[in-house]
Amino acid sequence: MTTTAAPATARKPATMAQALTRALRDAMADDPSVHVMGEDVGALGGVFRVTDGLAKEFGEDRCTDTALAEAGILGTAVGMAMYGLRPVVEMQFDAFAYPAFEQLISHVARMRNRTRGALTMPLTIRIPYGGGIGGVEHHSDSSEAYYLATPGLQVVTPATVEDAYGLLRAAIASDDPVVFLEPKRLYWSKADWSPDAPTEVAPLGRAAVRRRGSSATLITYGPSLPVCMEAAEAAVAEGWDLEVVDLRSLMPFDDDTVCASVRRTGRAVVVHESNGFGGPGGEIAARITERCFHHLEAPVLRVAGFDIPYPPPMLERHHLPGVDRILDTVARLQWESDWTEGRGE
Amino acid sequence: MTVLEQPGSSRNKSSLAGPPPTWRPRVDPAPLLPDEEPYRLLGTDAAARLDSGLLTRLYTQLVRGRRYNAQATALTRQGRLAVYPSSTGQEACEVAAALALEERDWLFPSYRDTLAAVARGLDPVQALTLLRGDWHNGYDPHEHRIAPLCTPLATQLPHAVGLAHAARLKGDEVVALAMVGDGGTSEGDFHEALNFAAVWQAPVVFLVQNNGFAISVPLAKQTAAPSLAHKAVGYGMPGRLVDGNDAPAMHEVLTEAVERARRGGGPTLVEAVTYRIEAHTNADDATRYRSDAEVETWRAHDPIALLEHELAARDLLTDAFVGATRDGAEELAADLRERMNADPELDPMDLFTDVFAEQTSQLRAQAALLRAELDAEANGHTEEAAGAEGSAEEARP
Ligand SMILES: Cc1ncc(C[n+]2csc(CCOP(=O)(O)OP(=O)(O)O)c2C)c(N)n1
Questions:
Q1: With an 8 Å Cβ cutoff, is B362 touching chain A?
Q2: A136 and B289 in contact by Cβ < 8 A?
């Protein structure tokens, strides 16, 4: 599933952060009800500069520096949404969204349901998440499991520059709330992308097969996608051909793409950096088992962060799933092959 | 037509005018209100009564603090420190917070308050562990009674209230002093902490360092209150407004508040009016949200220079004293530089200690996996990794 139309103009390197900025800008230009709000989103352009220039272009009423109060930011956004606006809220870092949980879980997630559709929550909550940037305590959490545990929230996370644009446009256009998780260690990742070409809005809830393969499927999302792609390339040298599925959207979940892939390959490994116990991988493995049991040649395995509070920066490389840990896990799928022999099993 | 002229307005129903019969203010707000101007001692006649010993003690700590800030900032440029939020310009608040407390009291610092912790006696290297990134908290909080430097804003304030309350329940005359920035006063935790403290009459002092900005957001976008000290009144505690660059004034106000709390007089909210001379952290670009001219007006109101003026007037600012103070600060910086230039010795297996008091079987399995990976790394990737999977499996229940 590709998302972008063939670009009419030249493609040049752009970062994920720039693509996100462009998505916000285009959404604000297209729809006057789109409002951006959060801490430092105005003059500073956000601590990651994703909102750079928006206050200047659209005025402070549409790109608003708020007081430092996450519950207040999300709570007022709820009221704004009730009155017909489409707020796009920025939480500065993963762990600093926690003060807003009450609003998110008690109101944002269930407003449509409790009012039988009379009140909707067309709001987007942008949260830089995940580790790998050497951030100090409380700046590296992978909090997706909390959001996934809450019915009524869509949970979306781009892994490519193009998706950053397309998925953010789709999130803002959605009539239901989206927790939009931005993998902060990919903010500066670059791809050839044409910001001037009309870029299609990516539909929410569709996974993308990033690499075709026949031996096993790596299922991943967000910050772990580049790691999985690297692992898949490394596995080639050993004679193994891994398929890589990028979920893009954790809720809605694309059972079809995932199952089609696993049925083809017969083996699956789920990779994410949030902790494994109670993490998204458990749900994904269960879904695969329920739907593909008769196609599986091995149990669905998981490669995840350890079940520990996110470690200090100097130790985070041991915590984050890396290429070696992925390859070691793939080896445990017990193939009768050169690969396993080569590794002394 | 004004509201009062409208039919149905209170003017037309004089019999219903006035407050409800049972209403009266619960406490007289007047004594709780802060001064109109930030309280100052330096440059006023009242400075004459200040003890010279206190002034030289404050001065020594201010100079050491500034040097510490400069050294820590330099360490970020050398890659020895991941990030450093400097408190240059705010040293008087930091030092006064430490010196106003007795040994038995507790300090609850925010992430910018390394200086307060160091002035209270914490090892300067241990104070930087969080920011260097070797561990989240580099010291035993009980040793100097300093809670971990807190990153999520205002979340340490309710802890301070709870600790102070618990101490009082136990009959201990312990005071907690909790520090927060101007931005942090917008968080729900700030308001809840103040409310609990006032209702419980907990022995807590809240120190707000109003340094003008929360990263890029100026105070005017943070609050519409007359001052942050005014917020105290709504909770039923006194608010004090102080010149945060006037070290003796800071020391006096905080000491008074601490003593009042110790006597059972309840909490106080102190707002120190100060300024953040450096950017938010070394990673921030302050030119995006403030002018050099504004910074210069505050440089002219420097806490060290203000105190030097008073010391000079007393003939205390001798070459010998200034030299000794500077030498002491240089020693501190040299020690910091040297010890921070050594790589910390880290054991990755520590990731699994202290998650729980008793290790779970899941964590034991994960520890075995990492052990095997580390061995494989050390042995240049051999059979070990495969063997370890066995042990990881065995550790499962
Ligand atoms: C709950 C929470 N939200 C956001 C942040 C990110 N953040 C770190 S420092 C800061 C500004 C703090 O300003 P202020 O309270 O005035 O303290 P100062 O930095 O001026 O000392 C922000 C928004 C955080 N640490 N915690």
A1: yes
A2: no
Would the CB atoms of B351 and A42 count as touching at under 8 Å?
A: no
Encode pLDDT of B27-74 as tens digits: 999 999 999 999 999 999 999 999 999 999 999 999 999 999 999 999
Looking up residue A150, the CATH number of its domain turns out to be: 3.40.50.970
Q: Closest Cα of chain B to A49: distance in Å?
A: 11
Question: Over the stretch A233-267, which tens digit does the pLDDT of each residue have?
Answer: 999 998 889 999 999 999 999 999 999 999 999 99
CATH number of the domain to which A264 belongs: 3.40.50.920
Q: Do residue A26 and residue A128 come from a single domain?
A: yes
Write out the residue range of the structural domain in which residue A108 sits. 15-193
DSSP string, B199-236: HHT-SEEEEEEE-SEETTEEGGGT--SS-STTHHHHHT
Q: Is A226 on the interface with B (CB under 8 A)?
A: no
pLDDT tens for B328-347 read 999 999 999 999 999 999 99
- Pair (A234, A124) in one structural domain: no
- CA atoms of B230 and B211, how far apart (whole Å): 17
In the block, tokens 């100079």 appear at: B63
Name all residues whose Cβ lies below 6 A of ligand 1.
A 39, 68, 92, 96, 99; B 112, 151-153, 181-184, 211, 213-215, 276, 280
Cα of A68 vs its chain's centroid, Å:
25
Q: Are residues A226 and A178 in the same domain?
A: no
A44 and A77 co-located in one domain: yes
End-to-end CA distance of chain A: 37
Report the nearest-CA residue for atom 18 of ligand 1: B181
